[in-house]
Design a protein that fits this description.
mainly alpha, globular
């Protein structure tokens, strides 16, 4: 019983560490556009987001119940499985943070949980229908829906204000952007903080502390809310930079449209218990807002790297979770080895991140090697340029150059008439 109690304590602490990494990994979801457009200073933005994440953690437990009693079958699952799942999720979160890729913390957790459960009890321990309906389908649909919504909202915003002075409306849009960023933070707390609540509740069920189907206890809700708030305040500056400047250049109207669309999708999914990725939703909204402005450009090279990370998250975290679970099956020394590997891996990633630090001082600066390279002109842009007549000033300059190049002939000296001969 003492071993189970100690193991449960280790799992709870590890789950809160994951919640902490989730906070700084996903700060960009709410505040990247607000920081990049200058609506809020970086430290003010993350402080506001942290407070609202904490409040959002108390608004609902639907997502927590989906995780604690939906994705895997609680019967026959050992507490060690939860520990192994968290190890896979934390290491993937830290790796993608190092690379500045806004991958899904949610899918890292799901992947680690599924991989560890399969290693422990086989594929029958995974509720496939729940995974498809409440994880995979929302993962595909949510960023598309949020992107289309943000694109239409951006087009509508620019159309309504087409005859107004952009400087006159910029202040109002910045205020609206701050409000919508707060709404995204609140929505993030209702969705992502609950995932840790669910995983801790699942660990307590496997350890016999709670009965299957129980709601998260109050102390679990409070601790999960505080952990994600502290991680959010730390600020995942590398991912904020990618979301705010790497995907597209946003103006205040676009930032407002992107965040409003993202918050609507996240809150709706939390209400019905869909544990979707807030990262994918917010990324889709940013790309949609970039496409919604005339002349806006989305850097598809960055978007494609993000998409690859999204696709790899579930299987990569699953493989790490399965490997960790294989070690925990070996007994106490295996559990200790997994803990050591987690600490060592986290330390190595942190050490690598210090080679080129990104923080609130330089998150919006262009003087960083990570600055994305401008996208090459597309087919449509090239075609338009080919048929567009050159500007008048260019023709005048060319004519002047031509005159300067072709010199007029030198004047010919007059020839004196021949002197008549004397006879």
């Amino acid at each position: 019983m003492e071993h189970i109690t100690l193991l449960l304590a280790i799992v709870v602490v590890t789950a809160l560490v994951f919640d902490f990494t989730n906070g700084f990994h996903d700060t960009a979801n709410a505040m990247a556009t607000t920081i990049s457009t200058g609506a809020l200073k970086p430290k003010t933005a993350v402080a506001m987001s942290a407070a609202l994440n904490l409040v959002g953690a108390f608004l609902s437990v639907e997502v927590a119940k989906t995780i604690s009693g939906g994705i895997i079958d609680e019967k026959g699952i050992r507490t060690e499985v939860i520990f192994a799942a968290l190890v896979g999720a934390i290491l993937w979160n830290l790796l993608t943070w190092l690379l500045g890729l806004p991958s899904s913390s949610s899918h890292a957790l799901f992947g680690g949980l599924i991989g560890a459960a399969v290693m422990s009890a086989g594929w029958g321990s995974v509720n496939g229908s729940t995974v498809v309906t409440k994880v995979l389908l929302p993962a595909v649909a949510a960023p598309i829906v949020a992107g289309v919504a943000a694109m239409l909202a951006t087009k509508l915003t620019y159309r309504i204000n087409r005859n107004t002075d952009p400087k006159a409306t910029a202040k109002g849009y910045r205020a609206g952007q701050i409000a919508s960023a707060g709404l995204v933070s609140l929505a993030h707390g209702t969705n992502d903080a609950q995932k840790t609540m669910g995983i801790i509740t699942l660990a307590l069920v496997t350890g016999g502390v709670l009965h299957p189907g129980a709601n998260p206890p109050l102390w679990v809700i409070v601790s999960a809310g505080l952990a994600i708030a502290m991680g959010t305040y730390l600020g995942g500056w590398r991912i904020i930079r990618t979301m705010g400047k790497g995907l597209t250049e946003l103006r205040p109207p676009q930032g407002f449209a992107a965040q409003t669309g993202a918050a609507t999708v996240i809150l709706a999914s939390s209400h019905i218990g869909f544990s979707l990725s807030t990262t994918q939703v917010c990324s889709g909204s940013v790309m949609g807002a970039g496409l919604g402005r005339k002349g806006g450009v989305v850097r598809w090279s960055t978007a494609s790297r993000m998409a690859v990370a999204w696709v790899l998250t579930l299987p990569a975290a699953g493989l790490v979770g399965a490997g960790a679970e294989f070690l925990t099956q070996q007994g106490t020394w295996g559990i200790a080895a997994v803990a050591i590997l987690l600490i060592a891996g986290s330390g190595v990633i942190w050490k690598l991140s210090r080679r080129q630090p990104v923080d609130h001082h330089n998150v919006t600066s262009d003087a960083i090697d990570e600055t994305p390279v401008a996208e090459p002109a597309g087919v449509i842009t090239t075609a338009i340029a080919a048929v567009t007549p050159p500007p008048t000033t260019g023709i005048a300059a060319a004519a002047a150059d031509l005159k300067a190049t072709i010199q007029s002939p030198a004047p010919v000296a007059p020839v004196d008439p021949p002197t008549p001969a004397t006879v």
